[in-house]
Amino acid sequence: MNNLLNKQIIILGIGFLGGYVLNTLKINGVSSEGTNYQNISNSIKLNAVNIEEVEKYLISVKPETVINCVGIGDIDFLEKNPTIAYKINSDSAKNIAKICNKLGIYMIHISTDSVFDGQTGMYKENNKVNPLNIYTKSKALAENYVQDNAKNSVIVRTNFYGFDKKNKWFFNWIINSLSLGKKITGFTDLIFNPLEISNLSNLLIELTTIKHEGILHLSSNDFLSKYDFIMKVASVFNFDKNLIIKGNSSFPVKRPKNTTLDNSISKRILKTPITPLDLCLKNIKLNFF
Prior knowledge:
With 289 residues, the chain is of the alpha/beta class. The protein is built from ten helices and 13 strands. The strands form four sheets. A seven-stranded parallel sheet has the order 3-2-1-4-5-6-11, with helices on both faces. α1 crosses α7, α2 packs parallel to α4 and α4 (82-103) runs parallel beside α5 (134-149).
């Protein structure tokens, strides 16, 4: 990261992923700052839906790169509140893209593997999206806004997991449930190839140095069902595998079944290695447990 030491990188939206990226940058001495719409520690308060506020802030800090992690992903909530979905996930992306383009800032926009309908899997960057719910429709619209308004930008589609210190998200739910001896259902019909969050953070940071443009899929080489993923976690953490029940997914809001992404382009242009799932899980256990 030596080539980043004299450059300013801004993370918009300090949530789970944004916080990891910011922390990685700061540990390595890279000039960086994060924003959040709430008053939280170690971040600047910013309403990304307000384009004047975004412009004023980015003019004041003059970053070379902006990584846009602004968004809300509560699928069931957003299905009932589409105005909020499009305001936070879509409109903020449009505002950020316009200002980045105006100020000559490279923009990395975080999207999702779920913009596809999940009928085939192994989606390439140029495959047509077909979002199934309000959340993914808002994310697909955000992609269009970024493409239309920011010339020097990349849209990153991805899926990630990892240990969350705030004790949220899928991985923590698995650990918490199995450690308490609770039975959980692992869906065999939901297939994905997620990246461990610190691995994804390093890939994103490398992207700031090469400034790839267009759309890029960042995903792991491990293709597996949610059931198989939970079984892997149980194996590494020595949990009782009898607690894990096979099942098929059933949600009130429609979700794609197979969201696996083809990562061949990213492996060609990025030097950061993709860490295998087993090693990632062992590292999480070593570092957090």
